Write the structure tokens for this entry.
Amino acid sequence: MSLEVTDLRIEIGGRAVVDGISFAVPDGARVGLIGESGSGKSLTALAILGLLPDGAVASGSVRWNDREILGLPDRELARLRGDDIGIVFQEPRTALNPIRTVGRQIGESVRIHEKVSKREALARAVVEAERVALPDPERLVSRYPHQLSGGQRQRVAIAMALACRPRLLIADEPTTALDVTIQAGILSLLRSLVHDAGMSLVFITHDLAVLAQVATHAVVLEHGRVVEQGAVEALLRAPSSPVTQALLRDATATLWHPETGTPTAIPDAATPRPARGSAERHPESTPDAADQGSAPDAGARRPDATPAGPAAAQDAGRRPPETGPDEEDTP
Ligand SMILES: Nc1ncnc2c1ncn2[C@@H]1O[C@H](COP(=O)(O)OP(=O)(O)O)[C@@H](O)[C@H]1O
Ligand SMILES: [Mg+2]
């Protein structure tokens, strides 16, 4: 189950916004697409899924299991999205219908893939909610999206993406809109879900520290082109392009060794940890953390709000780790 993107170009209004991108995601690989805002990450993901906005024209090749999927008819692409490829977006609100209970929405995702009754789908929704470590799943499935915290909504979106048991998950900045501690929980969840299911992952971010926690291979984009790609560990130790060097400087605190101010060993990405089950260990699954997460999204600290530059990043590294509550995930 491999993905191969070759010389992908996307034009909007005659302008090449993605300009010859190539990368591969072998079976079970975890690849990060990284670059500044506007570098073409989201459009690349949307092109893979056949979800480009009107007016965007893609050329080149996207092969899924050796089958060309760029330009497939909508119906076949929809089937592919239901069966093989799941997606999680930055803002879970966009994936969720505000006037339907989360149980019904997760259940509908199950029904795309499996012929089950509505009642069975609702029962499955509880199981799926449990799988993404949502607290009190039996009760939670009868709630509406606005009654959940930001982190919980993203867990629902992840449950919906995974309900079809995809072989590839594409996550486009899934934690960017979340508070840092909630972000750590979601990253940890994604990592264990991907590992346990043996899925491949394409993880999009502008934050190298975040990427290093989930991906083993990085593709660095600038202005719609690949400027560098390779093993995350190699990129962190010896970034060859100025873009990667800048991303390394801007990476949030987690990457920096508190004592020496140098990049730490790559957290967990290189060596997947043994499967671990469960809910209780995710911070948001405790009532306290869930309350904390229900603060308005506006209060979220975004990674791009951290001061840039090597000195700032190193100083940040001397603060207590911000990922504290999820102790298993601090390097
Ligand atoms: N619907 C659209 N119409 C016109 N231009 C767009 C549209 N979507 C994206 N672009 C442009 O394409 C470029 C890449 O966008 P995008 O893939 O969303 O970047 P990223 O996800 O890396 O921030 C940007 O310059 C953006 O302005
Ligand atoms: Mg984007």
